[in-house]
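Q: What would this chain look like folded?
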Amino acid sequence: MIDFTMNKIELLAPGGNLDAAMAALENGADAVYCGLQEFSARKGAKNFSLDQISRLREWTFRNSRKIYITLNTILKEDELPRMLGYLQKLEELQVDSIILQDPGLARIIKKDFPGLTLHGSTQMAVHNHSGLQILKEIGFSRVVLPREMTMKEMAVFRKALPDMEYEVFIHGAQCYSFSGMCLASGMLLGRSANRGECGQICRTWFDREMDRGYFLSSTDLWAGSRVLDLEEIGITSLKIEGRMKSPAYAAAVSSYYRAILEKQAPEEIKTLEENLKVAFSRNSGIGHLKSAKGQSMVDREFPGHRGLLLGKTLGGKGNSLIIETSHTLYKRDGLMFVTPRGEAQSFSLDMKGNTKLEPGKVSIPIPFMAPPKGTELFKIQSHDNHTKSLNEQSLPLFKRPLSAELRLSPDRITLEVPAFGYSRDFPLSSEESTGSRGPEEKIRNEFLKSADYSFILSTLSIEGLGIDLDSRFIPPSVLKKVRQEAYRTLEEARQLQDQRRLMELQKELIEDAGKISIGKTRLPPRKDLNPESQALPVLTPGKIRTARVIKVDDRPCLPLSPLIFPGEEGAFKEELMRLIDKKGSLIGINNWGHIQMYRDWKKQNKALRWYGDTGMLLANSQAQLLMEELMGLETDGSYGWIEAEKSEIPDFFSKVGKGFKPPLFISRNCFKKHSLGGSCHECRLSFEYDLDQKGRTYKVIVQDCLTWIFLGEKNLHSK
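A: My prediction, written as structure tokens:
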């Protein structure tokens, strides 16, 4: 039995549904992260009802594990009242944290739900010290670092802010773009990745000149034994991606990394690795863990599940092929190969008379013509890989533990429950006891019977008033009646308290929105703020000296790049200070780190003003209020969330306007290196390419090892 309380580092697994969450927890995970059926960045997963969260919470509570709830989507203004109800329930369930992206949600939780712990989603794109400082100030205890960070950069973070918790992805799918900065699906398909509806445009094919490929399809991250290095530098939690994947995957990946962390025998780890590859695996590598340039970041040939490589075919004839393999194959194993055109051909192994094929040179029947000699054959499903669905009713619901005070007098019992503001007297009939034991133990045991209620009086302080408890006897029927009536009226008090609180909080939302002045200066169309003579609509660290910025009301306008890494932070702040006019400038905030940078600049120039740029994804009143509380009221306002429909943008936000082209992808992957197979040798650090897909064109701009992808001119689309 694993003693999870002794683990040095947390292994955090995905729970796309209750079956997957339990599979992970029963196979080595310390914690799981789960989404609700609303407000989750993985809407395609089955996700959880509040009832299922309650059952899982009870299990984790009893087994010293943790459950984190992902509410990591951008919230529209009219969704805030409904979110309050969810937060109220989650606080009652005492979940271990809320993982979130929306700044407005952070403000609500910090102000109104102090019992909930804040974890910053990777969607917040916090990748510099200034951003970390701001999240800590808001009240976040943990940040999920971008997949694009190196271990060296993580170690610097850990040393600079040691009291912050750091969560790091170690396995699973990688996005081509920085999380939170991908607008492709939202702008092109109306399915925002920031709302859990990503259409995965990056996983589709593109044409470049006479070449076709999956140029933006990222390989998977597979840290393997590198997790021991992450443990060494003091990372808090190792995160596994995969809420869209099966319970079999959740079990396999948890078992594999638990074995590595416990330094089990190499042969045991190898077996678990093979099981994991069969459960799900694309082409994979260690991502950016060792280098900012990344390792084999794109698989342009095939974007899907490859499984376990069995070997290359030696030939074939008709509906059979020959392969030499070191693996035993069983009837009903799922096999696959990829055709020269990049298409997957999968089939189930169907052997007449045999149940398995021993390792060696074997003939495999297939339901179509054999592929060419030298084709790689993969095992993508195991014959015995069928998990039985959990009977969720077998898991008891979580009961909120409450403390209560019970005072007994000769003719009544007084019950007080401070958490509900509850106090009530119940009539009592008792008599002298003929035994040596009083009623105290019987009272405690009786009040622990909470039936179907969502709470339990687990801590009971019992006091006698004018009677000696050691010499009293209360008939069991009387005690039962008091307990039943107490729980019934307690539930009524709880519901009334929740209703009143919810109504008050909803009223505050309306009052808060009224604090934002619609009469503030309206920002011009966003395209009018683009720096002149630059390919990008923002000021990047490498281009500040040559930038020609436009002016608004005779003030230089400085839209900041959303990507400023720790090593660039100091130089960027100094260089930008040279562009700031003594009479004042307008600073465009595009990332959490910019808030602290703006404060530092403001100390040197009181005439500075700010505006919220499109990179902040501001969609609701609470988000704008948080910005103003952090930065002050010297603002020209903010642009509303660019992926939203015009009717969904509150009036206090400025509209982006026509003609502005936001980056659809911003990536730390160099398109020249990873998608086209180019070299870093004598690189001039600046390239442009054109892509096409079914008549839609894209412009790829590579600057200083970063890739920015925009719609081409003839596809200009704006909301």
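The chain is about 25% helix and 25% strand.
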